[in-house]
Amino acid sequence: MRRTFLVLVCAVALIMSAVLPLCAQEDSSTFHVMSRVEQLVYGGERTGGLVDRLNSVERDMFGRELPGSIAERQTALLTFIEKGTEYQPSLLFKLGVAEWAVERQIDSLSPVVKRVDALEVQLEGTPQVERPVTMRLERVLGLLLSEPVTAAEVELPAATIIRASLAHSLSPKTAKKGDPVDMVLHSDLVVGANLIAPKGSRVSAVVTEVTKPRSFGRPGEVKVGVESLFSIGSQPIPLTFGEESRQAVEAESAQLAAAGTSVVGALLLGPVGLVGGFLVRGDLKELPAGTVVFSQTADAVKVGAYPVPPGLQGLLKNPEKAEPAQPGTSESATNETTP
Fold this sequence. Notes:
Helix content is about 35%, strand content about 20%. The chain contains nine helices and twelve strands. The longest helix has 16 residues, at about 1-15. It has helices spanning about 1-15, 20-25, 30-40, 50-60, 70-85, 90-105, 110-125, 135-145, 245-260; strands at about 150-155, 160-165, 180-185, 190, 195, 200-210, 220-230, 235-240, 275-280, 290-295, 300-305, 320. The protein starts with a helix and ends in an 18-residue tail after the last strand. The model is unreliable at about 1-5, about 15-25, about 260-275 and about 325-339 (pLDDT under 50). Helix 3 packs parallel to helix 4 (about 50-60) and helix 6 packs parallel to helix 7 (about 110-125). It has a six-stranded antiparallel β-barrel with strand order 2-3-6-7-8-10. Strands 1-11-5-4-12 form a five-stranded mixed sheet, with no helix packed on it. It is globular and about 60 Å long. By secondary structure, it is α+β, with helices and mostly antiparallel strands.
């Protein structure tokens, strides 16, 4: 308990020491930042005055209100949750490590409080809701790991194939241009023994074009631009579509055909504007959640990763190898979705 409290105090001190230079770079309005913080922590924007909302989230996170101006405090919160510091990984990074150690995947689309609750229920049967969220997470990590969570910078090669699946169903009848599309990573993405993005990490996309279902049975179409994979440290990794991901789609289709399984959705095309894209077509009313899509990293990028200790490396089974695809080869897996 004392160790957890000291970690919490040190974390607060570190984020406050980073506030002033970050505030000078911050262009977003205070209300926008507050909304972002509440989305991350609670899953939605709260009502009330700005100061009361800020006080509430600080008490929920740390058990106390932080010093400084509104802008400094908000920036400190957002930095602590999403970015971390040179010496301390972010809260989302640590939360991802804890979830991965317990479940071998993360719940990237849920808010922080729900994810911490779920971890405590999984480990002890009941959430410790009377304690600050940060202290609860540090306590969970103390139960799971012998050593503190650290981060390492590694290089993710260009043209690394990213296999993801739709998190929610997608329908040509209801989709609109500009709609966000959430996907989740199909399996762990690693470089060596460094975990870059666990299974379940968020992959973002946006609807770029919609053709409604037409007469005489002609199918509707939804064109989507794939944008980014978010790493365990919430760093966006730009994605695109190219020859390597096209080969991965063809390999998947060939395997499904050989197995006698119908292929649903996903004729991949590209490029679309500045990002890759794929075309969903078919005569179904909707493309179901779980439908697999492919993309690839646009360029080589350095990204923060979790150096998995030897005692946990047995969890790195069947990961997506972070290596650029070679011409004529690609990784494939069975898509269980059928029409």
